[in-house]
Structure formats: structure tokens, C-alpha cells
């Protein structure tokens, strides 16, 4: 069993990545389905408003904070190489940093930016909206799964 600073770091990792898994899962199974039921102009305008509100500190502090915790876990683990939990700590960090944070940067945020550039009432937005819903949600499923797996792997480091 891990101890010392690893115990606290792994516990923070479990809590943070688990929280983000819940946010992403809820978005996939509730919010995106609700938005898909709206007319394209309403759905696109609402998603733009949601994306704007996601830039508020309440979400950004948690999102970047969890990524920071995962990065710290990875660096400390790699540098100090503990006797127990090394693989779990490194894998948990990699899962979140690549599968959640990385996917956000390379897949979800560019789609958000493209949607924002379109006039919600315009024909381009109406044509893009179903594509956006399908692609954004698919990538969001990956973020949810990666975050959940990260939490499980961090939890395994604790036992």
C-alpha cells in the first residue's frame, strides 16, 4: 500500500478524476440528449451559452486543478519511483491527461470554437449542428471513460 504524500495525491486523484467523470457522463447522457431534442438554432445557441459559462472559475479551477494534480502525481512518481503503486499512479495520470484533458484540447474545444463562429439561426449552423452533436458527444464519451478509468486506477494504487 502506498503511503506518505502518495496517499494524499492518489486520494485527490480519485476524487478529482471521479468528479470529472461524473461531469462528462452527465453531459453525454443528459445535456447533449436534451440539446439534440431542440431545433438546431436553439440547440446551437444553448450550447454556445454553456460553453461560455464553462470558462467561469467554478469549472475551470476544477478542470485545470485535476489536470495539475495528475501531472504532479506523474512527475513525483516518475522522479521518486515508489516501491508500491508506481504503475497505477502513472497509468491513472496518463489516462486523465491524455484521455480527458488532451481530448478536450484537441477534439472538444475546436468543435466548440467552430460552432461559436456560426450564426445559430443560419443555414451553416443548421447543417453543422447534427455533426457537432455526434462528434462532440463521441469525444465526450471518451473523456468520461478516461476520467472514470483514471479514478479506478488511482483507487487501485490505494489498496
Percentage of residues in DSSP E strands: under 5%
Mean of the pLDDT scores? Answer: 96
Q: How many separate domains?
A: 1
Helix vs. strand class: mainly alpha
Percent range of helical residues: over 70%
The number of distinct β-strands equals 0
Structural Rg: 18 Å
Shape: elongated
User: In this structure, how is the largest beta sheet organized?
Assistant: none
Number of helices: 5
End-to-end CA span:
6 Å
Succession of helices and strands? HHHHH
Low-confidence stretches: none
Short key terms for the protein model shown above:
159 residues; mainly alpha; 5 helices; 87% helix; elongated
What secondary-structure arrangement, pairings included, does this model have?
Blueprint: H1 5-36, H2 40-53, H3 57-80, H4 86-117, H5 123-158
Protein name: DUF1772 domain-containing protein
Organism: Streptomyces adustus
Pfam family, one: Anthrone_oxy
Can you put this structure into words, describing what you see?
The protein has 159 residues and is an all-alpha fold. The protein is built from 5 helices and no strands. It has helices at residues 5-36, 40-53, 57-80, 86-117, 123-158. The radius of gyration is 18 Å and the shape is elongated.
